[in-house]
Design a protein that fits this description.
This protein is an all-alpha fold. The chain is built from 20 helices and 4 strands. It is found in: Membrane.
């Protein structure tokens, strides 16, 4: 019943968001999805990441067939598009092949093959649809937050040493090559998630067993609950509020070379109707932290291969550098994003353990810490800027304490103990 309700809720949500988008003059999820099928896809990587995730549920033979169909369709669409003066891009083939795979499995296969294929196809489709919903939500944050709270976050960030200004100068010193690498890492986060998820689910086809917890679950829940804070705490980021990209509404061209004067009588800043209010919390930080956590171990508790652990670490560090160095976020946003990730992960990880006292305490502590951060950024920002050292010690100390508690609960056990607790954490589906 729950699965049926969730499946039924998806088209309802898409239709409602499309109505909102059409009424307010921006692209809705159904329009964007139609472009993926028959027009110009908005993203190249997301459709292919969704297809790659769907392919973990089928055999190698069927993977090659589906991949070949997707590539062929993409080549035809790209040729027709370019011949009519359109851009050279791809993505249609991946979406069409994913849909075809789901239909063939639904009507033509039986038993475990059918269940695995539909399960994986649903995950791939959800990854694509989540990006469509996220794009609309960014427009909604503009409608819901005409005034932004960047003045307050800047004051709070003084307790952290204005890391966005520091990293902005670091990225500038890296030159075009460093900037290009960081920019690619920043925009291709779904690809990193797909790689980790595909590795976690690599044994689904031969065994018919799905792990009880894997990265896609955390990714989707983060995307569901995190952006709610955007409308509660609208922030645009330093490159918009304190630099030249503010469309004339910025407080000055300060970032990244000059720290703005500290305003001890802050107020909400009226801003444009274009820039999303998507800073608090930093969802890129939350998602990159999830990629890092899930790149450490397999579902049975055994260590992940070294290449995956190094890749997860690199992606997290590069994402943090990009979020600050591009001026998209303040340091306060990153702390909030990391706490959000650890809270959601504590709610989802090791589900066979149930909601025991430790899990309840961890989730409650994470919710309380995140709420406390947002309230302090809003109502204690002046005090934090006037007393940066104690404020920074308290903020970072609470954050470090929560990180340690999560590590001690979920990761610090011996390999044998972890394997024993994780062994029943699978279900045949």
């Amino acid at each position: 019943m729950l699965v049926g309700a969730a499946v039924a809720a998806v088209p309802v949500l898409l239709i409602v968001l499309q109505i909102v988008a059409s009424h307010n003059g921006f692209e809705g999820p159904l329009h964007s999805l139609w472009n993926d099928f028959a027009g110009t896809p908005k993203s190249v990587s997301v459709p292919w990441a969704g297809l790659a995730l769907a392919l973990v549920g089928v055999s190698w033979r069927r993977r090659f067939i589906t991949l070949g169909v997707a590539l062929g369709i993409d080549a035809v669409f790209a040729a027709v598009r370019v011949s009519h003066g359109g851009p050279l891009t791809i993505g249609n083939g991946a979406v069409i092949a994913l849909t075809g795979l789901a239909l063939v499995a639904w009507f033509g296969w039986e038993g475990r093959d059918r269940r695995n294929a539909l399960h994986a196809a649903a995950l791939g489709a959800l990854l694509i649809l989540a990006t469509k919903v996220g794009d609309v939500w960014l427009h909604i944050t503009v409608l819901a937050g005409p005034n932004v709270l960047d003045r307050y976050v800047l004051l709070a960030d003084h307790a952290l040493g204005e890391p966005s200004w520091v990293m902005g100068r670091v990225v500038e010193a890296l030159g075009p090559v460093g900037y290009g690498v960081l920019h690619w890492v920043y925009i291709e986060l779904p690809v990193a998630a797909m790689v980790v998820a595909a590795w976690q689910l690599r044994r689904v086809v031969p065994t018919g067993v799905w792990p009880s917890h894997y990265l896609v679950r955390t990714f989707l829940v983060l995307g569901l609950v995190g952006p709610v804070a955007y409308v509660l705490f609208p922030v645009v980021g330093p490159m918009f509020a304190f630099a030249a990209d503010g469309h004339g509404l910025q407080l000055g061209n300060y970032w990244p070379h000059t720290i703005p004067p500290l305003d001890h009588a802050p107020a909400a800043l009226p801003f444009d109707t274009v820039t999303p209010r998507n800073c608090m919390p930093s969802m890129h930080t939350a998602w990159a932290t999830a990629v890092f956590l899930h790149s450490r171990r397999a579902a049975d508790g055994s260590p992940a291969p070294r290449w995956l652990r190094w890749a997860g670490t690199f992606w997290l560090l590069a994402t943090l550098t990009a979020t600050l160095g591009f001026g998209y976020h303040y340091g306060a946003d990153l702390l909030a994003g990391a706490v959000l990730c650890l809270t959601v992960e504590s709610a989802l990880r090791d589900p066979e353990r149930g909601w025991d006292r430790v899990r309840i305490q961890l989730v409650a502590a994470g919710v309380a810490l995140l709420a406390g951060m947002l309230l302090s950024y809003r109502f204690l920002a002046v005090w934090m800027s006037q007393h940066p050292f104690p404020a920074g010690v308290v903020l970072l100390g609470l954050f470090a304490g929560y990180v340690w508690a999560c590590y001690a609960t979920w990761f610090a056990g011996s390999s044998a103990a972890t394997t024993a607790s994780a062994r029943p954490a699978v279900h045949a589906d």
